[in-house]
Amino acid sequence: MFLAEVAVNAVEVAKANQEGMVALAKGIGAAAAALGVGYIGNKASEGVSRNPAAATKILVQSILAMALAEGLGLLSILMIS
User: Fold this and answer.
1) DSSP letter at 39?
2) Where are the domains of the chain?
3) For 20-60, what is each residue's pLDDT tens digit?
4) 79, HSE (Cβ side, Cα atoms, 13 Å)
């Protein structure tokens, strides 16, 4: 009887650990997307400060890059589920 209870507890701990690892992986994916967007924004600001005449072109490229980074972040969250 005691071994059956230990086995049931072990299964519950394993399931909880697996759920925690899934949550951690989702968090890492979301954090990586946020860091990517921040990096893109930083570099776009630097580019505009160096060449204000190219602000429109830099804005378009940075918006596209940010959209791709956010899309990859969402994709990682959905794929991990």
Assistant:
1) H
2) 2-80
3) 888 888 888 889 999 999 999 999 999 999 999 999 999 99
4) 10
